[in-house]
Specification:
- The chain contains 10 helices and no strands.
- By secondary structure, the protein is mainly α.
- The chain has a domain of about 100 residues.
- The longest helix is centred in the middle third of the chain and has 17 residues.
- The mean pLDDT is about 90.
């Protein structure tokens, strides 16, 4: 059993949000085996704690093998908004580092573009981030529309329109502009 397998086992059994966060940080910075990624994908969908599902998405943010699970979470309207938003962010982290070609990349972009129509500002905000991180040029028209029309703020961050504008800059330059998050950090809806 590898050290990553041990971390995954601890993650499966843990309920404390602080410990789950620390385990997710360790997992995301480790080279997870395919078996460990598959176990974390299962936990992303089945962990009894919403915090466990949230931090599972965080832990998976560098494994393209997790793309299908993360898209499922993003599209699951029965899941908490914060967890769905974390899945969108993780997809951006994954595909911002992976080769931006192939069927899976195009499929992820198409699912993110569909999620831009979600009613929740947090989802649209993190989808814009993901598309900018992925440098998805096909998203430019949709991001431009959000930048012009969607001025809803996201607690702890900034407006959807500002994130969409930043994503456009990132697609064109490879860099997101610096912004300072607001100080009103959200409380998770399940707490």
């Amino acid at each position: 059993m590898t050290s990553t397998d041990v971390l995954v086992r601890h993650f499966e059994e843990e309920r404390d949000p602080g410990e789950l966060c620390e385990l997710a940080k360790k997992l995301s910075s480790s080279k997870m085996s395919p078996r460990a990624v598959d176990r974390m994908c299962r936990l992303e969908r089945t962990h009894k704690s919403p915090d466990g599902r949230l931090f599972a998405a965080y832990a998976l943010n560098f494994s393209s093998r997790a793309s299908e699970t993360l898209v499922e979470v993003l599209e699951d309207r029965q899941e908490y908004i914060e967890i769905r938003a974390e899945a969108a962010e993780a997809l951006g982290m994954i595909w911002g580092c992976e080769k931006r070609t192939g069927f899976v990349y195009r499929w992820v972009v198409s699912r993110l573009l569909a999620a831009m129509e979600e009613p929740e500002a947090e989802i649209r905000f993190w989808v814009a981030y993901a598309l900018g991180s992925m440098r998805a040029t096909q998203a430019l028209p949709a991001l431009q529309r959000l930048a012009e029309e969607d001025h809803r703020p996201v607690q702890g961050w900034w407006k959807v329109s500002e994130e969409a504008a930043d994503a456009i800059v990132a697609i064109n330059t490879r860099y997101f502009p610096d912004r300072e998050p607001t100080r009103d950090w959200p409380r998770m809806s399940w707490h």
